[in-house]
Amino acid sequence: MTVYKAPQRDMKFVMDELLDMQSHYASLPGCEDASVEIVDAIREEAAKITTNVIAPLNQIGDQKGCVWSEEGVKSPPGFKQAYAQFREAGWTALIQDPEFGGQGLPPSVGNMVTEMVTSANLSWATYTGALGGAIETLHAWGTDEQKNTYMPKMVAGNWGGTMCLTEPHCGTDLGLLRTKAEPQDDGSYNLSGTKIFITQGEHDVADNIIHIVIARVTGAPAGTAGISLFIVPKFLPDANGELGERNTVSCGAIEHKMGLHGSPTCVMNFDGAKGFLIGPENKGLQCMFTFMNNARLGCAVQGFGHADVGLQQSLAYAKDRLQMRALTGPKNPELMADPIIVHPDVRRMLLTQKSIAEGGRMFTYDIAKMLDVVQCSPDPEARAEMDDLLGLLTPIAKGFLTEVGLESANLAVQCFGGHGYIKEWGVEQNVRDARIGCIYEGTTGIQALDLIGRKILGNKGAHLNTYIKTMSAFCEANQENPVVAEFVSELAKHIKEWGELTMQIGGAAMNKPDEMGAASVDFLMYSGYVVLAYYWAQAAVVADKALQAGTTEEDFYKAKITTTKFYFQRLLPKTRGYVATMTTGADNLMELDAEHFVF
Ligand SMILES: Cc1cc2nc3c(=O)[nH]c(=O)nc-3n(C[C@H](O)[C@H](O)[C@H](O)COP(=O)(O)OP(=O)(O)OC[C@H]3O[C@@H](n4cnc5c(N)ncnc54)[C@H](O)[C@@H]3O)c2cc1C
Fold first, then answer.
1. Which residues are catalytically annotated?
2. How far apart are CA 47 and CA 50, in angstroms?
3. Is residue 164 lining ligand 1, measured as CB closer than 6 Å?
4. How far apart are CA 348 and CA 541, in angstroms?
């Protein structure tokens, strides 16, 4: 019994009050249409379709899964119809370029809708998520002819999209890729090879599927320097741009997985399939990053979404389920027992989920706001500054929020006790579905290496320092406010420590490269807890202002301040453990020879 209700009040708090998206939209050319009324209307409509149409398919998708046959892959019952309804209502076009049939709204509006879709039903969301990334890649790197051929159909949602990177022997290390692309006289390429784990590689919800594939052109250098990017359509467009000849790309099988059963994870065989180069030859990996960054933000949203879904279910259950009496004496003497929400440990689990769900929303919505600037600002300096910040924050958001999202989903099961472990309530599905977030689009380990290596040490800490300055300015501005003083002083200590830890790890890694890898995941988790603290402190400032000004929603704003207190007193101290472990060095990991792990 899965129930999802879009948390509209909190979305509005983040968009309107915390991030002041109205001034932001008004200041960006092309974003002015996103008025409060328009964004409210979009949110309300998205809440309706996600709650009433998409969420009810979540459990059936898990139970029935996708079915492979020689003819193709059948999506779970109801998925195709819901997709048609979503497409016909224009949701796939929401943030796309009007030149290709899109509605031209800013990425941050799309991000808000993505939250609702992924939280309602992650498996279903992968049908539109893969499409969005493929559109963005084509838009960034396609020729005019390619854009005109593919984008209108994709923007309208009639044609789907995929990202084909992984091969059986090559996942993280894409330089090992073997799929070949042989140049043809007509300027196209024939692609041969096998890709695995391809989300939406084959399905029945769209008329055509446009695969975005990495492959190595004949004679190209080995490693990542020889990777190029291609469009490989399932059906080749005919002279009128309509469905033409069937291409020689096919789905050999689908995987049977721990979760995400409603999303087909396909083995794709390219048997001399016709493909078309996108972007410069041998620069495929750089082009593919357009897709990957989009997907990584999507994973971060997915991460806190699992916390939100788990919270919604476990909170309702905790108010209803009667077990034992409160330690302070009966709270409901007329009943046989008190609801479990009276117990401190149940509250710990609920407040942890709330902190991650609402904290993750603030963090990722702010990232989406930065994306608006990168995409729409006419000022190259502002674009470059935001791009650097996005580069720094994306691995933190992806790595940290998927890890704590999974932890939160587990806590929801714990709130349900044995009833969480059985399938009836759907909270165990949330854990199984959440597990993949820490793996695809680059594992947590890879996000951590990207963060400390490329995004921090790679620019000698310049981008981190800029961010630290912004955070420090916030702390200084609010240190006299009695409601938040204790939070900002703790945050300020962490910010200083963040810079020091970076220097320490960077210094150690200069002499011994393993030091960076050994510290990396602890450093990523540390960074995530500090960043979330920054957002919770901001939430408390905004809530305090609202309370000072007088409000009819006292409970809502007081809960923000109470949750900030919980976060600072019970979650932020987890950084102490990460500091202790990340500074122990690499020897305790590397001493044991691989052959002596087991005797
Ligand atoms: C459900 C699902 C959907 C997917 N969808 C897609 C898709 O649409 N398109 C696509 O192309 N791929 C897709 N993938 C593949 C996914 O992106 C990869 O599984 C992932 O990138 C990891 O690669 P791998 O499985 O080969 O693991 P490996 O690369 O073999 O890694 C195994 C372990 O080693 C660690 N490791 C590897 N190298 C390092 C290093 N240098 N330092 C530290 N640790 C390291 C990893 O962190 C991991 O823990 C999907 C996978 C699944 C399961």
1. 441
2. 5
3. yes
4. 23
| CB 254 less than 6 A from any atom of ligand 1 | no
* Amino acid code (one letter) for 51: T
User: What's the pTM?
Assistant: 0.98
Report DSSP state, residue 170: B
Q: What are the pLDDT digits (tens) for 453-467? A: 999 999 999 999 999
Q: What is the DSSP letter of 32?
A: T
Nearest-CA neighbor of 154 among 169, 139, 174? 139
354 vs 13: CA distance, rounded Å: 15
The SS3 assignment for 160 reads strand
Q: Any idea which residue has 């033409």 for tokens?
A: 244
Please state the atom number of ligand 1 nearest to the C-alpha of residue 172.
29
Q: Which residues of 514-537 are buried (b: 16+ CB within 10 A; e: fewer)?
A: ebbbbbbbbbbbbbbbbbbbbbbb
Note whether 384 and 512 are within 8 A (CB). Answer: no
**Can you read off the two tokens belonging to residue 432?**
């199984």
Q: What pLDDT is attached to residue 1?
A: 61
Give backbone dihedrals phi and psi of 175, rounded to 5 degrees, phi first: -60, -20
pLDDT tens for 516-575 read 999 999 999 999 999 999 999 999 999 999 999 999 999 999 999 999 999 999 999 999
**Does the Cβ of 22 fall within 6 Å of ligand 1?**
no
Q: Which residues fall within 8 angstroms of residue 387, CB to CB, at 6 or more apart? A: 374
Q: Ligand 1: which residue has its CA nearest to atom 29?
A: 172
DSSP 378: S
Q: In this predicted structure, what is the pLDDT of residue 187?
A: 97
Two structure tokens written together for 244? 């033409």
CB-count exposure of residue 171 (10 Å: 0-12, 13-18, 19+): middle
65 contacts: CB under 8 Å, gap ≥ 6: 76, 261, 262
What's the distance, CA 306 to chain centroid? 11
Centre of ligand 1 from the C-alpha of residue 287, in Å: 19
Query: In whole angstroms, what is the distance from residue 365 CA to residue 363 CA?
Result: 6
User: 469: which 2 tokens?
Assistant: 């300055």
Give the contacts of 306 (CB within 8 A, at least 6 positions apart). 119, 122, 405, 406, 408, 409, 430, 433, 434, 437
H or E segment to which residue 379 belongs: none
DSSP assigned state of 242: S
* Separation CA 56–CA 46 (nearest Å): 14
Round to whole Å and give the CA distance between 32 and 570: 41
Q: Show the DSSP H helices in 101-142 as ranges.
A: 107-120, 122-141
Q: What is the spatial distance between Cα 6 and Cα 555, in angstroms, rounded to a whole number?
A: 19
Which residue out of 123, 402, 440 has the highest number of ligand 1 atoms within 8 Å of its CB and is therefore the one to mutate? 440
